[in-house]
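Q: Given only this backbone (581 positions), what sequence would you predict?
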């Protein structure tokens, strides 16, 4: 049932108090472990973005009502950060690229950008559908211009601890203010609003989460989310405990947004999903990600780790990797000079050899699988080599007592120990609260949209093309509400690329795999005829046929047959297991 906006508003008044009650009962009040007694009160009240110079979380002076309101925003933001439905094709969430156990970076290693950098996989490029003027969320109509996922130009920095920075991104382009979609600074978001400013960006990036032409101004993102159920694509048993109650309300995002922001002085009332509300929710979630229980915070560093830190201190590392711009990490270890969780970054731009970029935080760096903005350094040991061989006497040289000022093996081990253990918050490594998360749809054992569900080798036709199946949006059986009020319900799509342009293509589907190699999906199949392959050799098909409730949990197999100059040739095949929430 689609709940229209006025109707949703009417429902709200009645349900709001019950909703807030549920929040209070269902969610344990968070311990503000790093409360700073004696701080001035946060007079800016809750609409203010405020971090860390008024970061609500370390503050013990916020009122109970303020804390509850923030908690609601955090909960909504946590859902949104891990929500793959935020992306145009339902395959990419913020968290897809920002995995806590990888130190807030990308686990799916391997996207090579045209610059040579190792970036993160985002979206398959999809042009705006010129025929209807609507964005084609469905891959229903060509033109796609690509069949492979695009890759970000830079490696993924962490979102954990991002709240301490005045400005975000490698080039600091997000923040300090948060602007409306027209570029005008928003009242109350004129300072420390980098988290808000950043959050609206990836959603409309046609590399990261959006199809081409997607912008907040079109209303498509809002429409799509308004009618989506939170966490619809993930295994419900993996939804983090603190946000389960929000999913359990059974509300669409439309209603959840209104409930959370209903009494907001600037963005209150019945508006459903808006860009500014999205930003505030996601920003509040990120401000909850405070990595402050590493050995260095708890005072549990070993002698070796202390030694490693001293070597770095003497080498001048902390002139950039410290919030206060100096070797400020004095004893007793665990009491950092910077009262706002020393991020081990000055937040400033420096060029240490790969171009000017913002100094990244060193917290949880040991969990990362690639280092530097180009992602080209794969291990901490390689990174130590790099810093050790910086110009002698330079600010960035790692100085030791070995030959020529290099590190002795013991010194090297100590620095690595400090970097990889003393700065690692075990909750981040283990993905426990507040760093817990759902298993993403892209990680589900029954469905892998990142191409591991493909098998077999394509056969070439007379023109020599090896067609490739595009098999990477989730096989959800039905979407309960048609977004935009008129889009098709059957939104699972399978495409093919790298085919011979202009030739006919047919999608073959079967309930059992074949022996191959000619027909990987076996001899009995449903054939879905397609129009000719387009100029790029691409075609896409809706797959309504097998996706009935009877097909839930039953694997099926798909392959493309191309009539290449009157002869049959075949793409590789893929396996899918339809699911429903
Ligand atoms: C396709 C992968 C991808 C997705 C999806 C993605 N990010 Fe990122 N994120 C990146 C990359 C790459 C960068 C660095 C980009 C740059 O600096 O130009 C980045 C930078 C950031 C930073 C800056 C950290 C710092 O210290 O400067 C934050 C915070 C962040 N992302 C949060 C988010 C949020 C919130 C979302 C969802 C709304 C999101 N990301 C979606 C890849 C991704
Ligand atoms: C002049 C400022 C500066 C100094 C001094 C400096 N760094 Fe860095 N550090 C940076 C910048 C900037 C980057 C990011 C470079 C890039 O990604 O292109 C970085 C990146 C790193 C990273 C990788 C973080 C990641 O997530 O990829 C580590 C680890 C690191 N530095 C350790 C050190 C050590 C150890 C020293 C002392 C020998 C040191 N740094 C000295 C500025 C500095």
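A: Predicted residues:
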């Amino acid at each position: 049932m689609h709940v229209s906006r006025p109707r949703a508003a009417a429902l709200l008044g009645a349900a709001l108090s019950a909703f807030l009650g549920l929040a209070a009962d269902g969610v344990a009040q968070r311990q503000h472990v790093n409360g700073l007694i004696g701080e001035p009160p946060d007079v800016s009240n809750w609409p203010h973005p405020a971090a860390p110079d008024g970061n609500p979380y370390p503050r013990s002076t916020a009122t109970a009502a303020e804390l509850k309101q923030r908690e609601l925003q955090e909960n909504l933001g946590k859902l949104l950060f891990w929500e793959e439905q935020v992306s145009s094709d339902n395959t990419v969430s913020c968290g897809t690229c920002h995995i806590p156990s990888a130190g807030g970076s990308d686990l799916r290693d391997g996207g090579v950008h045209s610059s040579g950098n190792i970036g993160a996989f985002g979206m398959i490029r999809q042009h705006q559908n010129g025929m209807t003027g609507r964005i084609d969320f469905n891959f229903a109509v060509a033109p796609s211009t690509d069949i492979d996922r695009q890759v970000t130009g830079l490696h993924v920095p962490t979102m954990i601890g991002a709240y301490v920075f005045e400005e975000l991104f490698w080039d600091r382009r997000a923040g300090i203010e948060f602007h409306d979609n027209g570029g005008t600074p928003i009242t109350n978001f004129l300072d420390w609003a980098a988290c808000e400013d950043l959050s609206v960006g990836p959603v409309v990036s046609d590399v990261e989460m959006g199809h081409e032409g997607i912008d907040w101004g079109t209303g498509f993102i809002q429409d799509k989310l308004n009618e989506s159920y939170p966490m619809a694509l993930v295994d419900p048993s993996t939804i983090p405990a603190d946000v389960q109650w929000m999913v359990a309300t059974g509300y669409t995002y439309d209603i959840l947004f209104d409930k959370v922001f209903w009494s907001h002085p600037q963005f209150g009332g019945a508006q459903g999903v808006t860009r500014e509300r999205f930003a505030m929710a996601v920003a509040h979630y990120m401000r909850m990600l405070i990595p402050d229980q590493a050995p260095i915070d708890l005072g549990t560093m070993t002698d070796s780790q202390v030694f490693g830190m001293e070597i770095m201190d003497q080498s001048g590392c902390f002139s950039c990797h410290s919030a206060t711009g100096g070797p400020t990490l004095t004893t007793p270890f665990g009491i950092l000079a910077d009262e706002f969780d020393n991020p081990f970054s000055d937040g400033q731009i420096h060029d240490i050899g790969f171009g000017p970029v913002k100094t990244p935080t060193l917290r949880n760096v040991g969990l990362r699988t690639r280092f530097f903005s180009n992602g080209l350094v794969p291990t901490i040991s390689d990174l130590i080599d790099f810093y050790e061989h910086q110009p002698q006497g330079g600010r960035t040289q790692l100085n030791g007592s070995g030959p020529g000022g290099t590190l002795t093996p013991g010194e090297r081990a100590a620095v690595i120990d400090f970097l990889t253990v003393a700065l690692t918050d075990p909750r981040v490594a283990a993905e426990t609260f507040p760093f817990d998360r759902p298993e993403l749809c892209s990680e589900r054992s029954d469905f892998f949209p990142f191409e591991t569900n493909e098998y077999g080798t394509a056969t070439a036709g007379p023109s020599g093309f090896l067609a490739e199946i595009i098999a990477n949006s989730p096989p959800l059986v039905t979407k309960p509400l048609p977004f935009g009020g008129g889009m098709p319900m059957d939104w699972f799509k399978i495409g093919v690329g790298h085919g011979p342009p202009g030739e006919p293509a047919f999608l073959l589907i079967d309930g059992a795999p074949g022996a191959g190699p000619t027909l990987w999906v076996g001899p009995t199949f449903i054939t879905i005829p397609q129009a000719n392959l387009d100029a790029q050799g691409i075609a896409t098909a809706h797959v309504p046929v097998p996706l009935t409730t009877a097909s839930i949990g039953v694997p099926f197999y798909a392959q493309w047959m191309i009539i290449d100059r009157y002869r049959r040739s075949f793409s590789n095949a893929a396996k899918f297991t339809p699911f429903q929430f």
